[in-house]
């Protein structure tokens, strides 16, 4: 009797677990569809012939599929010039951030000096300053030295240490055992030796996070190019795309094709570096 | 100490100097071409007493934050709970919810203009399927802010990820003990999950506040303040004053007010956190 009861109870529990599982899948699927639909919409529009764009209810699968929209889009605007400009600014930022932020982070974590901890608090508090406050004086300075209209204002800062990345790298350097530095010091190594030969090689994952974040941040940046670039030949992809939209508001197929082209590199990068990404986010709890 | 040298220069050039200069400018009338002229408190007086658009932009920003942030936090937790379930294909689901974050803001802004198109857009097409005639969204002053809020919720993958990490940190024994005592789902949720992830909620609240006060790119690209200034947000109005009207002094005054506002709100949240944030590592 008892055994039968237990069996039926187990069966019921099993069934309940099954319904739970089904319900969670339904919810997850519904949410996912809602979140992915805009992407589908973007790609679908980008492949439509003009006549199928302004139709209600919308046509989801274009017929015929207009692959040539992409060719038209990259020729409609100087896409590859914009791409080159964007890559240039991104790479300069990555180089600057990796060199300077790691150096500064080293000073804030592995060397003891007077006033270090106070200055570190100052560094952290600068994270709170909204960009609107520094934007205007910086613009005035850059315009006085004639840098407005060049790429310099968009990457020079990276070479003087970005607080967020200094913070992130410092947290990582703190986790490297002190004994390693101590042993090297006994062998007569200078701080620069220790930094270049011990700390940096050990910090490859953290450096990858910093490089990735600063690359994507620069790729996404809109306000910087908007303020500092005024010559169309110097536009970055973000700014170029926005200008394209203001000039041709209804060219949706071409706009969506260009948008897809601007998005694909970061999505590819995301999938290639997914582990680095997640590591970075959990390392700081801060977005890139 | 020499190693920190780049940051000293960076700090003085890119933070300290601009901070001081912008305080000075905020008391000046300055159009970049002619040297700044001291006007005392005039900029602030004009802002507070004469400038209706300043109040309008402040109202819009507060509206945006007050609606998008609390509901966004709720939705974020709900999605994080879903993403914490033990079902097949979870990595795919997680990626899908995170994807909107990694696409450039310019792209998502332009994409959403198209999605929100009243006649041919995705959202009104979906609404039509369930028999609802959708509003004019970005063209309707009543619906323009909700439209932008909707878009903001779509891109909250970071928030979700932080909740998820926090939920995964909760010790299983807590739930097991509660189940033995016959706790329902709701009991477990409100008495274990919420207190245990309260540091993550706190973090997302603070970051959300700071980011939302500086909300700029989306309204700049999507509406540029229209219709009838219903999407004229604080940072957008600040940008106009500085880079369209070249009222650098006036804009600096606005920037400093923004700084003070953000600082005050953050401080308030920090102070209140003692009452509702529970830290496991804290010593009694």
User: What is the overall number of helices of chain B?
Assistant: 13
The largest β sheet of chain A comes out as: none
Question: What is the helix content of chain B?
Answer: over 70%
Task: Specify the structural class of chain A.
Answer: mainly alpha
| Low-pLDDT segments of chain A | none
Q: What oligomeric state is this? A: heterodimer
Could you name the key traits of this structure?
heterodimer, A: 288 residues, mainly alpha, MetI-like fold, 2 domains, 74% helix, 0% strand, flat, B: 284 residues, two-stranded antiparallel sheet, 13 helices
Summarize the SSE layout with pairings.
The complex is a heterodimer of chains A (288) and B (284).
Chain A: H1 2-46, H2 68-76, H3 79-109, H4 116-125, H5 131-144, H6 152-155, H7 163-174, H8 178-186, H9 191-202, H10 204-220, H11 223-228, H12 237-247, H13 252-272, H14 274-284
Chain B: H1 5-26, E1 28-29, E2 37-38, H2 42-50, H3 52-83, H4 90-102, H5 105-115, H6 122-129, H7 144-154, H8 157-168, H9 172-180, H10 185-213, H11 217-222, H12 234-244, H13 248-276
Antiparallel strand pairs in B: 1-2
């Amino acid at each position: 009797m008892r055994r039968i009861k237990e069996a039926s109870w187990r069966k019921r529990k099993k069934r309940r677990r099954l319904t739970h599982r089904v319900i969670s899948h339904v919810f997850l699927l519904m949410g996912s569809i809602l979140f992915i639909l805009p992407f589908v919409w973007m790609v679908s529009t980008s492949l439509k012939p003009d006549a199928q764009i302004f139709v209600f209810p919308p046509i989801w699968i274009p017929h015929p599929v207009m692959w040539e929209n992409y060719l038209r889009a990259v020729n409609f605007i100087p896409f590859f010039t914009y791409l080159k400009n964007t890559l240039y600014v991104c790479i300069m930022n990555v180089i600057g951030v990796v060199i300077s932020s790691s150096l500064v982070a080293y000073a804030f974590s592995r060397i003891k000096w007077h006033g270090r901890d106070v200055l570190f608090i100052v560094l952290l508090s600068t994270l709170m300053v909204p960009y609107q406050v520094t934007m205007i004086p910086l613009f005035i300075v850059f315009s006085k030295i004639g840098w407005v209209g060049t790429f310099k204002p968009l990457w020079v800062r990276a070479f003087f240490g970005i607080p967020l990345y200094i913070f992130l790298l410092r947290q990582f350097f703190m986790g490297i055992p002190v004994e390693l530095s101590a042993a090297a010091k006994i062998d007569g190594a200078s701080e620069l030796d220790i930094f270049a030969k011990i700390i940096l090689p050990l910090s490859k994952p953290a450096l990858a996070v910093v490089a990735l974040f600063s690359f994507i941040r620069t790729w996404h940046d809109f306000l910087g190019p908007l303020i500092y670039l005024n010559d169309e030949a110097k536009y970055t992809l973000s700014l170029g795309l926005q200008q394209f939209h203001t000039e041709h508001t209804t060219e949706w197929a071409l706009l969506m094709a260009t948008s897809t082209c601007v998005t694909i590199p970061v999505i590819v990068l995301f999938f290639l570096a997914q582990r680095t990404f997640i590591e970075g986010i959990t390392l700081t709890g801060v977005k890139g | 100490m020499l190693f920190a040298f780049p940051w000293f220069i960076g700090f003085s050039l890119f933070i300290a100097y601009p901070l001081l200069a912008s305080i000075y400018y905020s008391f000046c009338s300055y159009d970049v071409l002619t040297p700044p002229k001291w006007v005392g408190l005039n900029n602030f007086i004009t802002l507070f007493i004469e400038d209706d658009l300043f109040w309008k932009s402040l109202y819009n920003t507060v509206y945006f934050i007050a609606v998008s942030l609390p509901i966004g936090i709720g939705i974020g937790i709900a999605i994080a709970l879903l993403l914490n379930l033990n079902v097949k294909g979870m990595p795919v689901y997680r990626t899908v919810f995170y994807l909107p974050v990694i696409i450039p803001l310019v792209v998502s802004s332009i994409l959403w203009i198209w999605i929100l198109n009243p006649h041919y857009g995705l959202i009104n097409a979906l609404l039509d399927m369930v028999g609802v005639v959708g509003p004019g969204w970005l063209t309707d002053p009543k619906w323009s802010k909700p439209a932008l809020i909707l878009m903001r919720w779509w891109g909250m993958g970071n928030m979700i990820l932080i909740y998820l990490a926090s939920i995964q940190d909760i010790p299983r024994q807590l739930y097991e003990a509660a189940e033995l005592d016959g706790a329902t789902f709701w009991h477990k949720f409100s008495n274990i999950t919420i207190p245990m992830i309260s540091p993550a909620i706190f973090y997302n609240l603070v970051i959300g506040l700071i980011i939302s006060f500086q909300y700029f790119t989306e309204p700049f690209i999507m509406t540029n303040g229209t219709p009838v200034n219903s999407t004229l947000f604080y940072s957008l109005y600040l940008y106009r004053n500085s880079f369209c009207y070249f009222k650098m002094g006036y804009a600096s005054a606005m920037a400093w007010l923004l700084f003070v506002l953000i600082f005050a709100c953050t401080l308030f949240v920090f102070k209140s956190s003692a009452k509702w944030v529970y830290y496991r590592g804290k010593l009694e």
